[in-house]
Specification:
- Helix content is about 15%, strand content about 15%.
- It is of the alpha+beta class.
Length: about 60
Amino acid sequence: MASIAPKYRISKSRRDKRQKSVMKMTAPNLVKCKSCGELMMSHKVCKACGKYDGREVIKVEQK
């Protein structure tokens, strides 16, 4: 007969060590924009020129 309750109690520090090993922060994957060459996140609209996949999606004011 299998019981549902765990055999031994796991301390909070041991539990947290296991959970924190997976939850690491990683740097975003940056690629160069095809039109302006600025670094941007992949599969997102470029903030510098406002283009995505070669076509203008948003209008960006030039400084």
